[in-house]
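[#protein-structures] MJ: dropping Dipeptidase E here for a structure pass
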Amino acid sequence: MRRILIASTSTVHSSGYLTYLQPALSTFFEGIQQLLFIPYARPSGITYDAYTARVSEAFKPLNITVKGIHEFKNPIEAVQKAEAIFTGGGNTFELVNQLYKNNMMQVLKSAVNAGTPYLGTSAGSNICGLTMMNTNDMPIVYPPSFESMGLIPFNINAHYLDPIEGSTHMGETRETRIQEYHTLNQTPVLGLREGSWLEVQGSLIVLRGSYTARVFKAGATPFELESGSEVLL
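AK: finished. structure tokens for Dipeptidase E:
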């Protein structure tokens, strides 16, 4: 059975790296001894090694060791043999570019669909959708395709932000940009707020966390989905 956690972010305000997710991770990764980490999206100014070290510290309380995929001579084999996989945040364009460059997109999808537990945060969550086209990131590289793993039948907009009441900013809101996307695309989009995540068990997808999520469908009025609700898009 597929087991996936799709989190909007790794860190919420006034909290440490993955701290808010620790209770969920403790249950999700129960029995796992080693985690394969994919650092390809790495945040600005951090190396793969440093990123992996950060993740390793976060998983110490769960007694799980972490090894970065860049440490393996054969990354495809590393995915196929992994007990569990975590893809971290950063730039989604670079993440997708590296996955295609290393011929790993389909391999990763197959492993997760076969039952390897998968955790994604931010960019690592964006690639769970049908495409990466609703990322907020700068296109710092041009990946061969925007198509991602398609583990869920819609796209993710991680770090979803609501319009700020009374703001004088004249730029587009996140909602406006997603509605612009729907002028040319039909794929539904889930705006996932900070501190929220999706829990996937087989084909069942449930919203978890303290906040609602914003649902966007082409030609329809956006609406809120309550935490604890099944996601049917």
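MJ: nice. Residues 3-225 form a domain with the Rossmann fold fold (CATH 3.40.50.880).
AK: one more thing. The longest helix spans residues 48-59.
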